[in-house]
Amino acid sequence: MENLQNYVEKIFRAITSSVFLCPTIMCEVFFMLKEAALLKFPEHKEIRYQVVSGFVFLRFFAPAILGPKLFHLRNDIPDQSINRKLTLLSKAIQSLGNLVSSKTPAFGFKEDYMIPLFKSFNEQGRIDAIRMFLDIISSATRAHSRSIDFEAPIILKEGVMTKRAQGRKKFGVKNFKRRYFCLTNQCLKYAKSKDDEALCEIPVQDILAVESLEEESFRMKNMFQVVQPERALYIQANNCVEEKEWIAILNKISQTNQNRLQNYHPAAYVNGHFLCCKSTDQVAHGCTPVSFGVSSDMKIDIDSDREIERIHSLFLHHMEKLEALQDDCAKLEVYSGESPATLPSMIIEDTKSCFETLNEILKCVISLEQEHKQYLKMLQRNIVLGSQDAPIGKDNYLHVSAQTKL
């Protein structure tokens, strides 16, 4: 049970720390699920967590742990002993996802011996961590939704740091002042104190880069810069650890921004020019590649041919459905009235575009299938009995012929 608890703890930390790695398209799905659930059940506030948790934990994390081969996490099928352990881990993770709404310690477990494990994780700190995870992956900011102004912000990090004045000068020199900083899933803002109104707010979508600032710029340590479209905000953290934490979380929350910079200025803009490249244009392109992002030496093992073959086989298998959908689009485009009976729960907003897209897909699928059949015919004609492709032996030849038979 102790080993199981350690494994669950590692998985729990891995899940909650991956919050900013959730793909934007998934965030959009989670956001729409949450909005639809709140609209349907406005009196149940916990539904915002239940609907997203049921999707991401029940349909994603738990199945991936239970069947790693299905999700390409392992090449072999686990034996009975390992499969039993994976089943327990899957149940435990699913129950952790239900912490936001469960009220009984045995929720989700049929085995009595699993109850102590659930009790050990049934703490307010873990519940808050799961809720923040679900809030962020389903937030309007992560989904790039227009509803962002109507959603309560989620505080990600806060603290007091020193900033350089952005506009006003004191005796001709821009001064530094201590300010309270607060980062939410919507913006980075600062004020004179925690209870005061914000003096400045930088929307997350306006953060183009977050990088360290050379110490020589102001002869101050632990400085970093938040690059905006018109200028950069220079901030000094209290220590090097805090500096790295702020840079990391700011980069993570803004990594999906479409206008993220590829290059930046490592030194500050002082006295009318950048100290690094001497450029006098405050919005000039950077002179140094940004450091945050996907590592250049990262190797991703993707068999593109296999993936294309898989996509083609899926389209080919569902040709009848695609053709039926294309016919329905044509009927909706030509005739007015109710939707065809084949589309009981589907709404096609742009039937013309849908028809054209389906037409292109069908043309590609048919063309690829014809070329594939031609290749198989050629392969069958060129088979030589006794060659490496068809070793001597009647059974081997029949096997090869069956594979290339149309």
- What is the CA–CA distance across the termini? 55 Å
Strand neighbour order, sheet with most strands? 4-3-2-1-7-6-5
What is the residue-averaged pLDDT? 79
- Classification by helices and strands: alpha+beta
Share of β-strand residues: 5-15%
| Helix proportion range | 40-55%
Order of helices and strands: HHHHHHEEEEEEEHEEEEHHHH
Alpha-carbon Rg, integer: 29 Å
Given the structure, what is the number of helices?
11
What is the tally of beta strands?
Answer: 11
Low-confidence stretches: 104-108, 294-299
How does the major sheet shape up? 7 strands, antiparallel
Based on Cα principal axes, name the global outline: globular
Give the helices and strands, then pairings.
Blueprint: H1 2-17, H2 24-40, H3 47-66, H4 80-97, H5 115-121, H6 124-137, E1 155-164, E2 176-184, E3 187-191, E4 200-203, E5 209-212, E6 223-227, E7 232-236, H7 240-254, E8 263-264, E9 269-270, E10 273-274, E11 288-289, H8 304-317, H9 319-334, H10 351-381, H11 394-404
Antiparallel strand pairs: 1-2, 1-7, 2-3, 3-4, 5-6, 6-7, 8-11, 9-10
Structural write-up:
The chain has 406 residues and is of the alpha+beta class. The protein has eleven helices and eleven strands. It has a seven-stranded antiparallel beta sheet with strand order 4-3-2-1-7-6-5, covered by helices on one side. Strands 8-11 form a two-stranded antiparallel sheet. A hairpin with a 2-residue loop joins strand 2 and strand 3. Helix 1 (2-17) crosses helix 4, helix 3 packs antiparallel against helix 4 (80-97) and helix 9 (319-334) packs antiparallel against helix 10. The longest helix has 31 residues, at 351-381. The radius of gyration is 29 Å and the shape is globular.
